[in-house]
Records
---
Amino acid sequence: MDSAALQTPALLLDTVALEHNLVTMAHRLPGMTLRPHMKATKCTSLARYQTEFGHHGFTCATIKECEGMVAAGLGGDLLLANEVLRTERIGKLLTAADAARVTVAIDSQATLDAAILGGVRDVVIDVNIGLPRCGCDPSEAARLADAARRGGLTVRGVMGYEGHLMMQLDAAKQQEQVEQSMALLIAAHCEVGGELVSAGGTGTHRVNRWATEIQAGSYAVMDSDYARRDDGFHQALFVEATVLAVNQKGWAVADAGLKAFGMDHGLPSLPGAQVLFCSDEHVTFRPGADWKLQPGDRIRLTPAHCDPTIAYHEAMWLSPAVALDAEAALELGASSPIDITDRWAVDLRGW
Ligand SMILES: Cc1ncc(COP(=O)(O)O)c(C=O)c1O
């Protein structure tokens, strides 16, 4: 299939960049030292590919992600790294699929009660290590773990998420701050016990040496925000759009807007052009000075935040030529048609 036949906006995945990212990460964090996070990529085909690089345990953010991973035969060791107050779907999942193991994060008596009521068997104690989100106070972790064990649950260890440090670009400061955060988690782990100290993400995977496993997700596909870290990953994810209008006053418009890009980390980018703003269905940009764009031309934009961008789309279209052509498009603006080699459903979307 030719990319010109795709309905735009269309999510494109460069398979060369994807493979590079998976090889790079598997080399740094082999086997179970990485628990790839499905919240970023939401795609069981991609998760299956990650198993070829040695990763067999996965992190999930939603019950839907757990259900989809189990249905795809990838649910042997899932960590639901989020609090849930209605866990009966997890209980059902465990009863229906013998080979499934879902470990659920708890951080309060309410989440512990919900886990027991819904039929959860395994938990980790989620400890707040600095990000103002979920996680119990470190001083409460041991009490919660004891209560969980009394309630018949297996406590596999602790998790924490130093999300506030992912984009700390000062290496020395990041090192120091991650160490401080992880000191809280390690202290809690000493009291809680269990084999897991689960933490980290794409932005801290190189400095967090205290976790037994890192929960990174974005590294596989990348976005322009994470690119600022320059950690050796390549941009694999793009959104193809069709140029609708080229205005004489110096701007052009294409058909990918707020409903095609997660924008909380900023505007999408288009190398050689200046993206001005997005509205619901449009992106308005100032083309490169020598570009001769016409309505009907295709352009390929880079999202600033991969997770919400992927969640907007039903599928990713694969090709080994997306990133190469993006470089060629720097001169002309318009991108060339490329061969699409596969379609992967974004089958873990929703809740
Ligand atoms: C609990 C948790 N772990 C890990 C991550 C790291 O994900 P990424 O590697 O995509 O930054 C996130 C991202 O939000 C998260 O919420």
---
Amino acid sequence: MELAPVLAGLEARDPAAVGRAISLVENGRAGFEELLSAIHHRLGRARRIGITGPPGAGKSTLTEQLVRRYRALGLPVAVVAVDPTSPFTGGALLGDRLRMERVALDPGVFIRSMATRGSLGGLATATREVCDVLDAAGFGRILIETVGVGQSELDVARTADSTVVVLVPESGDAIQTLKAGIMEIADLFVVNKADRPGADRLRQDLEVTLGIRAGHAFRHVPAHHGARGLSPSRGADQAPAGWTPRVLATVASTGEGVDTLVTLLDTHHAWLEGSGELTARRRRRLVERTREVLTRAMARWVSHDAAVEQLLQDRLAAIEAGRASPYEVAAEAIELLRPGSRV
Ligand SMILES: Nc1nc2c(ncn2[C@@H]2O[C@H](COP(=O)(O)OP(=O)(O)O)[C@@H](O)[C@H]2O)c(=O)[nH]1
Ligand SMILES: [Mg+2]
């Protein structure tokens, strides 16, 4: 692969070039790491916004509304729709794409669906790398829509600078869901379908759970107490003070409340920058990424090693017959690769 034309295509935000670069990265094809390495110095301009929540909550509808708002502000926007729950939901993603069609005709909008990536490297890593390509191509906002609230979705959500959790009155077990880990990653809670009964109740329940209403003892100090950024008495290892997750109501299908969402996303970003949290998060992610890349490179190195592959082939029968254990054979493989080391 010739790197220069790909980089030039990204620079020009040429949709075909962006699409090709993403496919290269998503499929881990030869040259993808050189590409990611070459764009590294250009990263950090995009705001990455994660939008997660149960199926049918209105994430895609809300995403489309956000795309319109950002386009109206003249910002190029990318949407990455991730569905880690099933590799067989092409239909649902296609539905999303059709719904996005109106905005998809605009060259300032780029939409991409992702399901799973092959054996090496998880979906979360692939998503981060695809977002890097979009960042390098100059998309000022990257909206990452993920289905569900399970562990893999949380991993994907952690990719974002700001995370929006979308709930609806129908998601009766919403508060239980929150306790399962989503609380820590949500910066904004959207109660969508506010045109339906039960929306007010859900909003109140959320606010109580988050400690924004009465009895907020377990939550950090709310913004209206004036505590922003770092207070001098705080230890360096404590979580940053000053951001209380916001709860807002929307009717995504009509656009009601979406302007407030845009404003709150700006507020959150300003807080991230002002508190030093953005720098801290990005630094953490770079460390994580470097380790991920190393782990992936080592996995590939091992799986492509002819001697190791031969050893595995030779010893499989012995493992099957109980004459050798997988652990012994793994130890032999390590010995081959790195004499003197242990598993
Ligand atoms: N009544 C109502 N319906 C909505 C609202 N937002 C989205 N919907 C509808 O809910 C359905 C699911 O929306 P979708 O955006 O695909 O949800 P997703 O699975 O979370 O991406 C669609 O039929 C939308 O038109 C809303 O605020 N009120
Ligand atoms: Mg959707």
---
Amino acid sequence: MSVDAARRDLARLLGAGSVLPGDTAVYLSDETEGRGLRGRADAVALPETPDQAAAVVRWCNDHDVPVVPRGGGTGFAAGAVPLDGGVVLALERLDRVRSFDPLLWRACVEAGMRTAAVRTLAREGGLVFPPDPGAAEQSQIGGNVATNAGGPHAFKYGATGAWVTGIEAVVMPGEVVRVGGAVRKDVAGYDLRALLVGSEGTLGVITAVWLRLLPAPEAFLPVVAFYEGVVSGCSAIERVLGNGITAAALEFLDAGTLAAAGPSFPGGVPAGAGFLVLAEADGSLAEAQRLRAELEAVLAEDALGVVAPAGAAEVEALWRWRDGVSIAVSAQRGGKVSEDIVVPLDRLAEAVAETVAIGERHELPACSWGHAGDGNLHATFLVDPHDDEALGRAEAAAGELFALAAGLGGSISGEHGLGWVKRGRLGLQWSPEAVELHARIKQVFDPRNLLNPGKKTAG
Ligand SMILES: Cc1cc2nc3c(=O)[nH]c(=O)nc-3n(C[C@H](O)[C@H](O)[C@H](O)COP(=O)(O)OP(=O)(O)OC[C@H]3O[C@@H](n4cnc5c(N)ncnc54)[C@H](O)[C@@H]3O)c2cc1C
């Protein structure tokens, strides 16, 4: 079928104002653009209701056309990039709050609602939606669920999936189904909800989610400590756990990251610092103060300096700075190949040091930062996005990083998913039998391989 005919058909289903040309640039890339990835599509569909989303999926199924679900396009795995044509199904117009019951700590929202708007909604009811991946102003709750996004506070509260009690999704050949709902427990069937969480648009198109919320902690009190290097910094991180301190967040920046983001750190970085640990205490004011005092004591050992911002404005400035770390690193060379490997916590120091060593072997500046408490590193190689040769070296370096993560008993992805950039690599950490099961689940949900084909493939 010609591209014109496809657009005509889709416009008949959705209305002309809800179908855009396939070359509409903002729908063709995500955060991997800095590593040279940009796709091409035949059309962009913008449904306003779940039934319209189902009609698009049904049309794609009937005409053997791939469909690429898209949230805010902030992913780091090229999951939302249409690499080989097809229809981009953008969820941004499905952004309604279907219900909000603050007294029952729950909400049901449509998939295209921005993450920041979900968090604001919860806050207005005195509650909190704990998952806090960066780029909250742009990412959508559907994209967060489809990637099971984490963030700093996943250390205490878990990743997005832990807060999802139900999902409404369009599945092949174009039907709206609902699994779970406003219930806090449900073991009646196989956990299809959990399968859709983190499925990266390869099993279904999420159109709405039921979320669990929590009464907002009264106080958030962060502590920042600086160390000479990786060994003393990682020992401090292990001391927090060893002392039984339930920090809400436990983050780190290595030397290369500090060099990029340190100049904008609110408060100044002590001379000689080559590693930063950011921990946060939360709870009632008294509880958060007690935990913060414990964190300060434990982190002070071997530290070059410890800072504990006090007022709300200082705390906000600190987290705004933390949100900007990824951008500060990108700014060094204009682009980066950034992965999200996970290792057991007691192997974190090795993974941080080895990331730099891999970079050196490939003649690339390298650094890492991330969610230390979860052993989750954003291990990164800096590149000029216009230098194809350097990009090639960075991709080879990323391959070594995945082998490193698997070899240390970890995972090749803790947050961003496999998408396109890590396709076919699951065998590094799973047995052939488990990889085969993964492929068979895809076949059950999507027998014609039209839902985001080529992404999250196992083998
Ligand atoms: C500055 C910055 C900081 C970040 N920090 C974090 C972090 O701390 N933790 C973290 O986990 N991530 C982080 N990310 C990555 C990213 O923001 C998350 O992965 C986010 O959840 C992606 O959401 P999105 O709406 O942008 O999805 P997209 O990028 O549009 O899509 C991501 C994947 O989900 C699929 N998808 C999207 N919407 C749907 C849907 N409704 N139904 C089915 N499939 C869908 C897409 O097909 C694709 O495979 C960060 C990104 C940036 C730019």
